[in-house]
Amino acid sequence: METTSFIFNRELIRINESGATPLVDWIRHEKGHSATKIGCREGDCGACTVVLAEMVDETWLFQAVTSCIMPLERVHGKWVITLEGVTPDRGLNPVQAAFAQAQATQCGFCTPGFLMALTAHVLNSKTLSEEELLTAIDGNLCRCTGYQSIRRAIRRLVKKWNNQPDGMAELKRQLLPVDLNEIAAMMQSIKEKNYSEEGERPFVAGGTDYMVQLGYPHRRGLNKVSFFVREEEGFKSIRKEQGCYYIGAGVTASQLFNNREFAADFPGFSRVKNRVSSTPIRNVATLGGNLVNASPIADFAIALLVLDCRLQLMGAEGERQVQLKDFFKGYKLIDLNPGERVRSLIVPVPTEVVPGGVFHFEKISKRDILDIASVNSAAFICLEGNRIVHAALSAGGVAPVPLLLEKTGLFLCGRELSMETLKGAQKVASSEISPISDIRGTAAYKSKLLEHLVLAHFVDDLPEAFKQEAIWLN
């Protein structure tokens, strides 16, 4: 077994532990650091949050991650920071002090996770904003429901440090009083792993869903999966070329949402961001993994279906491309041959294909954040005056696969935008789906939800005379 090496707080670690061992277990049981808590073991509660740091283009990147579903293999060559690593020998650091002064701790079980999520955000930021700090803790739950005091702590932090000269630099220094050059030198001493002998072992990218599926304690000792994806050219990069974006299958959700060029070319895509999982999950979950997992309600699959996305696959027999709509063959069945992997996603720039097109995304779930959809839907629509010249709609949760509503799109194209047209589109969409009753709703309920979402995609573009009727019906 090849050695896994990383920096833990200020210590260089070299171990031969199973690559599938959850990081939280190693932190608590091998190092005896108890601030990192074990809660849900599914990445949902945030109690186990730690900071994972690495150098990207000669700049430090600090990210909050959930250590309960983070296999040790994935921290090779990186810097793991726990609450013990940012706590002074005496007193409190600034984030801890803000929590104490705002009485933002009750039972205290969730507090380390909140502190580390905020720490990661602060270390990456040039200024502080209450809205962004609240987003940074969207993956953390306080079961004592002490959220208002946590809000007060955040406001206190923003007010104090934004109003000081060089406040951010001093805040970061107090949060992480270490020599970053020394840490970087330690990281450079770590050699890349050699995967030449892995053979046919399957590769997992982020593992945010796979680790949950494996279940604990079965994931401990698992050595049949290579959790650290190979750093092949383009596998973790985003590039724009000849009117298309080539997005590596190993690109994380956060990478995509933080790419300014992509955001400019896909202005409506930001609607997806805060409806997809949570900050620590987005920091790890990959686009390729979301598609290969083939969930019928995969948010990225639903969004990308309407953007004419295709996949570049690679295997022993070379490379081939497949349209995303044809990639899903049945429930959890995909067009991926043995030994093949998704290399990249190819997404045409909408303005170069359909000038004037508008992207829209809707998701119905019990919670706004960090929840699985009952039904989700996306649309890419272009109007010329009051005539629909392009319409692509998708739906999740209403079929065994993420579904492109091809008949609905064909029905809409060329028609005038009116309530009559939209009611017709609702009927066509209903004829394309085959929902089932399950824990997220009855089949009838899901059908009705999709009807409303079809209408919701067009509400902003409806003539004023129809808008009130549409809102009432929705």
Descriptors:
Ubiquitin-like (UB roll); 474 residues; alpha+beta; 5-stranded mixed beta sheet
Account of the 3D structure:
- Strand 15 and strand 16 (403-404) form a beta hairpin.
- This protein has four domains: 4-85 and 179-189, Ubiquitin-like (UB roll) (Roll), CATH 3.10.20.30; 94-175, [2Fe-2S]-binding domain (DNA polymerase, domain 1, Orthogonal Bundle), CATH 1.10.150; 233-352, 2-Layer Sandwich (Uridine Diphospho-n-acetylenolpyruvylglucosamine Reductase, domain 3), CATH 3.30.465; 360-472, CO dehydrogenase flavoprotein, C-terminal domain (Enolase-like, domain 1), CATH 3.30.390.50.
- The mean pLDDT is 90.
- The N and C termini lie far apart (58 Å).
- The protein has 21 helices and 16 strands.
- The chain is globular, with a radius of gyration of 24 Å.
- By secondary structure, the protein is of the alpha+beta class.
- It has helices spanning 23-30, 83-86, 94-101, 111-124, 130-136, 147-162, 167-175, 180-188, 210-214, 253-257, 260-265, 270-273, 279-282, 287-292, 299-305, 324-327, 350-353, 406-412, 419-432, 443-456, 464-473, and strands at 4-8, 11-15, 49-56, 59-66, 79-81, 238-241, 244-248, 310-315, 318-323, 328-330, 333-334, 341-348, 358-364, 375-384, 387-396, 403-404.
- A five-stranded mixed β-sheet has the order 2-1-5-3-4. It has a five-stranded antiparallel β-sheet with strand order 6-7-12-8-9. Strands 13-14-15-16 form a four-stranded antiparallel β-sheet, with helices on both faces.
